[in-house]
Amino acid sequence: MQKQLPSHAQVVIIGGGIHGCSVAYHLAKEGWKDVVLLERKQLTSGTTWHAAGLVGQLQGSHATTAFAKYGIELLEEIEAETGQNPGYRRSGSISIAINEERHAELKRKADFASLFGIEAHALSTDEIKERWPLMNPEGVLGGIYMPSDGSANPIDLTTALAKGARMHGAQIFEHIKVEQVLVEDGQARGVRTEQGTITANFVVNCGGMWARELGQLNGVGVPLHACEHYYLVTEAIPDLPSDLPVLRSYCDGTYWKEDAGKLLFGFAHFNAKPWATGGIPESFEFDSLPVVEDDVMEVLELAMNRVPLLQETGIRTFFNGPESYSYDGRFTLGQAPDIKGYFVLAGVNSTGIQSGPGAGKALADWIMKGHPPMDLAEMDPKRCEEFQARDVYLRERCPETLVLTYAMHWPGRQRQTARNLRRTPFHHALKAQGACFAEAQGWERPGWFGPAGSTPVYDHSFYRPSWFDTVQEEQHAARNAVAMIDYSMLGKLMVEGRDAETFLQRICTNNTAMKPGRVAYTLMLNERGGIESDVTVARHAADSFMMMSSISHTRRDYLHLRDNIQPGEDVRLRDATTSYGVLGIMGPKSREVLANVCDIDLSNETFKFNSFQHFHIGHAEVFAQRLSYSGELGWEIFVTPDFAEHVFEELMQAGAEYGLRLIGGEALNALRIEKGFVHWGHDMAYTESPHQIGLEFACKPCKDIPFIGRDAYLTRKEEGAGPYLCSVKLNEPEPLLHHNEPVQRDGQVVGYVTAGAYGKIVGSAVGLCYVALPDGATDKQAIANGNYTVMVEGREIPAEVSLTPFYDPKSTRMLS
């Protein structure tokens, strides 16, 4: 007999897969007894039940690795607590490489493992063959072995979490479909089901592949789509070792594990297909999809070559099941942007079993603490623009995520689907000049410029891609002559109204009570003293300001401003991003170029740094801010779209005699890293405080109006807790830095690289990195002590670490 639904709960969780049960378990275990979980059919009946059950500790980011590492810990403990065996086997895993670039990726992956104390060993081909005797070693260059990896039984693990949740007081109801999340005054108030209504303080959407449709009912974007995903199981294989490690052959698109005397091998498809584009059938429960042989033959042929035993072993099961993939390969985890108390955990891209326990714990902690327990910015629902949550976009983009699961994880890899959606007013002119475009938030942005007459295409490498020298030349132009870049896609948020100044003084750490015509670089903090964003604010009039944001965080910054407007404040927000095209011009000769096309005094005394002026270029009225993200003398020129190409042509013509060169985002990234300039989301997030980043200069705690987070910031600054962001430079010219390379001091891991590039001026790879203080030290200057190295593909490369940038540390060039 079905027990009666309660009329109220502190938290209602929708979805009884691995994630919903994990959230319920962790909330209840921490004493939140009034927790209700609702499952439309039976627990695990959506996608959890047919997961392969692989569990590996090392994932693609710090947060996802923390999730997976915790998941292993829970697997080892939960049976003792609940009496339910999760089916965990610690068999280890081996990943193999059949080309040099893949070998480099695996070695970098092993380096990354050292940041978390996860054991990883490089193996030779012979050593791999010894551990995995069924493998054909032809073409295998080597690989890595991770002894703590293994597999779990998805149903048993989920059952253990559900049992633990019940033991701690949570209630779980099956065969209850949620028809609607109830929202009132921007706050989640409960759910309406086919068997009644439950009011609640919090609602959690863990609906798996149904999460998108459920979110759409309330305007909540959950950017995922179900895709078809295959695995095959062989007939029983005599004498198959039961302790066989999981084998991943990324280039063959397969993974292998022993499964009750048989081999299960799964596919990372070369051509993936979205499923249920017209909606998921209401009756779906423990269902599989039709098998189309043509969808698996290419990978199957590679599999039979890698494991020749398949050529003489029958296939017992061809399985095709739907799994959810996100548009950008990242989870969706956090509070919905427009509805307080509405949380989402979904779209984990076929890593649910290994990530589910940790992801569920993180979401539970967020609900209980009122803020994220770690840096989860990469997963925040606020990252998703409206068009990225629409089905037409997701049907095209999400299958590519599945295809890329086992593809090369190149630094800066570009997506191929759903391109050319957002173009700046300079797009066609830049394309005619040889731009090779990269994509961010749907914007097409030049990454670099190919030579005249060429058709530039991104190729990627962990070493030096074909466009490496081109980017060096673009850097050289910015440092020694003059360079120009398209900044149009940067966010432009107008903050207007009678109370705009008071509002921004409260929101921003820097002083925004400035005269019209001035610009300030500032941070926005949270109540914990963490950095929510870094932006520039320009005062256009007594009641009008423009805030400029990075491309990927414009929506997030808009929402942060919106959510902090107090009742009765006369503050209006307007997204003016597409109202202007923007050209950045930089370099020691940029003043001469600009002087040739305008009739104002550009001298340092008259046109000061951090100011802006209105004037004309050709026939177009423009305004320009004197700012720089490259570390050189420079301006950002704003023009309405109708005059954009005219201004572009005027500057190109004027710059010809000074060696003006168009540059892209690749060169700009190297320039800013060489100069030590930071980027939110890479080098800092809401977990770090300004004192750790060297941004105290942008904080004015003595303002008449205290900024949000001031007291917490001052406390954290006084405590002096690290780690601290530093500049790092390799002492060898060949190795490259990309991201997440471990930094060692006196042979011990003390930090990691947040962003890296090759610096033309310094003549080696340069990066920004977090470094912990030496034991017992309280002064960040102690970081200078010790011998530093950076791990690059298993090698310890001698390096210099500095609290100041290696290029123009006093900013004399930028301020000249």
From TrEMBL:
Keywords: Oxidoreductase. Residues 369-423 form the FAD dependent oxidoreductase central domain. The keyword Oxidoreductase applies. Residues 426-700 form the GCVT N-terminal domain. Residues 725-808 form the Aminomethyltransferase C-terminal domain. Its EC number is 1.5.3.19. It comes from the Bacteria. Residues 11-366 form the FAD dependent oxidoreductase domain. Belongs to the GcvT family. Coiled coil: none annotated. The keyword Oxidoreductase applies. This is 4-methylaminobutanoate oxidase (Formaldehyde-forming). SUPFAM superfamilies: Aminomethyltransferase beta-barrel domain, FAD-linked reductases, C-terminal domain, FAD/NAD(P)-binding domain, Folate-binding domain. Pfam families: DAO, FAO_M, GCV_T, GCV_T_C. One of its GO terms (molecular function) is 4-methylaminobutyrate oxidase (demethylating) activity. It comes from Roseovarius albus.
